[in-house]
Amino acid sequence: MRITGGLVHEYMVCKRAAWYSYRSVSFENELVMLGKMLHQSSYKGEIKNIFMDNISLDFIKNENGEVWIYEVKKSSKMIEAAKMQLLFYLKWLKDKGVNAKGKIAVPKEKKQIEVMLTDKEEQELNKLISEMEEVISRAKPPKAKWRKICEKCSYAELCWA
Ligand code: SF4
To answer: So where are the chain's domains?
Structure first.
């Protein structure tokens, strides 16, 4: 199963949406893309506007020799989803031998939240990935639960028509 950062974010927001998304999205391998970009830049300066699977990874920056991945969000409402998404990228980079750190920036709220891949966070991420693999590979999607976000969800007709 090809889990992506975008899918991690989606799963954290709604498991059912992630189930649909996994089946409908034609995956561009965002991790391969990210790897290419990092390789091309040799980690110098910053790489902007990386769009992956409808989730924007806004830029990667080199700050005093440290690689930082930034994720800019409109609000901190879904901060846990953004955190797990960033952890997913940090773990992937770690597996490639790059130790990076993450920041979720919420300009409207003047917030910047640092995200580090500690042992504890890595365990949490691994647990989430295992759960995702199990839930998403089921023949039927998880039951729909109405929430405010359903109003703007592209799968609303599948859930509520
Ligand atoms: S409409 Fe609501 S329950 Fe259905 S997939 Fe979207 S967010 Fe999930």
So the answer is: 5-160
